[in-house]
Amino acid sequence: MDYLFLAIGLGLLFLSGNWLVTGSVQVARYFKVSSLVVGLTVVAFGTSAPELFVSLKAAYKGAPDISLGNVVGSNISNIGIVLGLVALIFPIKVEERNILKDWVVMLIASLLLVVFSIDLKLGFFDGVILFSGLVAYVLWTVRNARKNSNRVVVNKPTMNRIKALGYIAISITGLYFGSDLLIDSSRAIALEFGLSERVIGVTIVAFGTSVPELITSLMAVLRKENEISIGNIVGSNIFNILSIIGITAMVHPISVNSSILTFDYSWMIGFAVLLLLVMIPLRRGIINRYEGLALMAIYGFYVFWLF
């Protein structure tokens, strides 16, 4: 049954990723904001919903390594696997210089997480600060979008607002339940091989919760919406730390495994730096197949090192 649930979860995630891109692009056209902004907010939050569910569930069940490892591993796999695989199949054009600002926010959020984890515990006030950072980031993103709305060129929407919002709502629901099926079945299969909760959290569970980002980014590139593809990955990594860890820490304290602090955090920041390197130049730059293959190879080395 675990293998059947795995297949159902993947199918649900595939369909939901397609609907999410469809609805969010239409919303962007109605409100005259760029696809990048939608990718950094609506799509990023929707595809990060599985991580929130898993982290809260794991924290309450006394599995902090899965709760934290899920987010850290997801941020690593978003760049190493998601971006790497998408670029390997479809080279991605980087046409928005504004992505650099969001990359800086992602790096700052990652460094804050490291600082807050030094005492090997993420408590309520740590969560408040992280979540406050998310609120400030969203307000800043929306403000910039409105300020530049006159300079944004968008196509006319081809779908009414209610239908577009319905697509987004249904897709987020599908991502939630599809990821739930995928994670539970993957964890059950992995446990048969006697893996630790930390390894399961940063690999199996993290990859499972990154599937929405993978499907959404693939669909975005297929539809020539490169800004959503890049924005989805950067935005998801920001939401994972500021929202997922922030909310979870406020609801339930998270114990930090020293191996996650010294090893996995270093890889997470390292992949953030790699993301900047492959995006250069930021104006009409291209993340090509060789760079995508390199990202996947480095991620493979990270997983190999874990075992």
Descriptive report:
80% of the residues lie in helices and 3% in strands. The longest helix is centred in the middle third of the chain and has 31 residues, at 161-191. The protein has a two-stranded antiparallel ribbon. The protein is mainly alpha-helical and 307 residues long. It has one domain (2-306): Up-down Bundle (A middle domain of Talin 1), CATH 1.20.1420. It has ten helices and four strands.
Strand content: under 5%
**Residues in helix, %:** over 70%
Residue ranges: pLDDT <50 for 5 or more in a row?
none
- Give the helix/strand class: mainly alpha
Strand order of the largest sheet: 1-4
Largest sheet: 2 strands, antiparallel
Element pattern in H and E: HHHEHEHHHHEHEH
Mean pLDDT: 84
The CATH superfamily bears the name: NCX, central ion-binding region
Number of domains: 1
Class in CATH?
Mainly Alpha
Number of helices: 10
CATH topological fold name: A middle domain of Talin 1
Number of strands: 4
What is the 3D shape?
globular
- Gyration radius, in Å: 18 Å
Head-to-tail CA distance between termini? 27 Å
CATH architecture: Up-down Bundle
Brief summary:
This protein has about 300 residues and is mainly alpha-helical. The protein has helices spanning about 1-30, 35-60, 65-90, 100-115, 125-145, 160-190, 195-220, 225-250, 260-280, 290-305, and strands at about 90-95, 120, 255, 285.
What labels would you give this structure?
mainly alpha; A middle domain of Talin 1; two-stranded antiparallel ribbon; 4 strands; globular
Write the layout of secondary structure elements.
Layout: H1 2-31, H2 35-60, H3 64-89, E1 92-94, H4 99-116, E2 121-122, H5 124-147, H6 161-191, H7 197-222, H8 226-251, E3 254-255, H9 258-279, E4 285-287, H10 289-306
Antiparallel strand pairs: 1-4, 2-3
